[in-house]
Give the backbone structure.
Amino acid sequence: MRCGYPYNEPYDKDMITIRAAHPEDAQFIALLSVQLGYPASTEDMLRRLDFVQKDEDHAVFVMEFADNNVIGWVHVHTCGLIISDFIAEVKGIVVEEKHRDHGVGRMLMAHAEQWAKKKGCKRMWVSSNIMREGVQYFYERIGYNNVKTSRVFHKEL
């Protein structure tokens, strides 16, 4: 079971770049989504990326390695709730398997948190499937607390 950073040396900041996703990244985002358990075609991802990027309450950031390959992404959005102060929620984050345990996820989350602060959010939320224990340890290591356990229901429309 993978438990995340810091089992390997973190990547040097000169080796990576975090930036807003571009339409040209759709193929890489789709490929990484498979590792997250959400397969999508490049065309589907391009359509989804276009949709969320038209909304200023959403942001998708990618991390490029020194060779210009996208090795991770995070999707975050702000949310006004009646039950809580203005928050940001991570809707997805994934790091390419061979680049895990080098601080990539930590850096992506820090970037998303900075974006959320600039948007006026007071809190960051992230959900994780209970089957992903290693990911839960990762979130705890970067300062997140497990505050509730829920069930997710959906209905096809």
